[in-house]
Design a protein that fits this description.
Length: about 300
């Protein structure tokens, strides 16, 4: 899917955008795809790890190889929305020195032909504290392709041995939190800048829905403690947002599949130990987990049919 991403960058018509492709020892034709774009993208650089180093270290390598003042992280299965680079450049000009940006996202089906959802975003603004950023939009910070970050700050902070503790698939979130802490600012661009391809969650395919849920929960709990331990109010707000978004979505996604009942009881105990103090656990998450998938699917189908009439 890399070729679609590179085509979307070319379509923006901004010639001096540097593009770094870091290949984590993939067994496919990534190198050939990149080579086919070199004549059209003079700033394109390709780096290949001889052995797989993992997602977190691959993120770090991409940023280290870049040379711009800001770096836009991007998964190879996503694309730039038309006008996306222009929105980003305008925001960086509007807020000189800002630590980075979170940008708007449109979700598409796996073929990238049908829009399925436009993600809810705060209004375009500059936010001037780490607590306010994580307390109001923590769930938006884990999507790598919607993050632009000040490169020098990132590199300085990534040298800290503490970063190694956050190689939990979300090292980029920890680093951007530290960037916000250092610079005291983060920008929000509400306009859609990224096209997200749904149905391509590699961790879900590798680990299954319950382990995928645990990866999210444990990573964000670790992030909340590592970034907001001194700010209990913002920490609680962050945990609530993660529960209301990532946790509920993982459960719903699992229960929409035939195998969604497998491990549901274990998941209920796992989530309950961490979120028992949240009323929505008892009112929403627990019933979703315990109701058989077939019955829940039939109820949703009936509800949609009634609404359509």
């Amino acid at each position: 899917m890399l070729a679609e991403l590179l085509e979307s960058i070319i379509a923006e018509g901004i010639a001096d955008v540097e593009v770094i492709v870091t290949d984590d020892a993939s067994p496919d034709d990534t190198e050939t795809v990149v080579a086919s774009f070199t004549d059209r993208m003079p700033t394109l650089k390709y780096l290949r790890h001889p052995q797989n180093v993992g997602m977190d270290r691959n993120f770090l390598a991409a940023v280290a190889a870049a040379s711009g003042e800001y770096v836009w992280l991007m998964g190879d299965d996503d694309k730039i929305e038309p006008g996306g680079i222009g929105h980003v450049l305008a925001a960086l000009k509007r807020w000189p020195g800002v630590g980075g940006l979170t940008v708007g996202v449109i979700d598409y089906d796996p073929t990238m032909t049908e829009q399925t959802h436009v993600r809810a975003m705060p209004d375009t603004q500059r936010i001037d504290s780490i607590g306010a950023v994580f307390g109001s939009m923590a769930e938006l910070l884990g999507f790598m392709s919607a993050l632009i970050v000040k490169r020098r700050e990132w590199l300085d902070l990534s040298a800290d041995p503490e970063v190694a503790k956050f190689h939990n698939y979300y090292v980029q979130v920890y680093l951007l939190g530290k960037v916000i802490e250092r610079t005291g600012s983060w920008g929000v661009v509400k306009e859609p800048c990224v096209s997200f391809r749904s149905g391509n969650d590699q961790l879900l395919a590798k680990h299954g829905w319950r382990k995928r849920l645990e990866i999210d929960v444990e990573a964000y709990e670790q992030l909340a403690e590592g970034l907001l331990a001194a700010d209990p109010k913002s920490k609680r707000a962050m945990r609530k947002r993660i529960f209301n978004t990532h946790v509920i979505r993982r459960i719903q996604g699992a229960k929409d599949t035939p195998s969604g009942d497998e491990g549901a009881l274990k998941a209920a105990f796992y989530i309950g130990r961490r979120y028992y103090d949240m009323p929505r656990f008892w009112a929403d998450a627990l019933p979703r987990l315990l109701v058989p998938s077939r019955l829940a699917s039939a109820a949703r189908h009936a509800y949609r049919r009634v609404r359509s009439h």
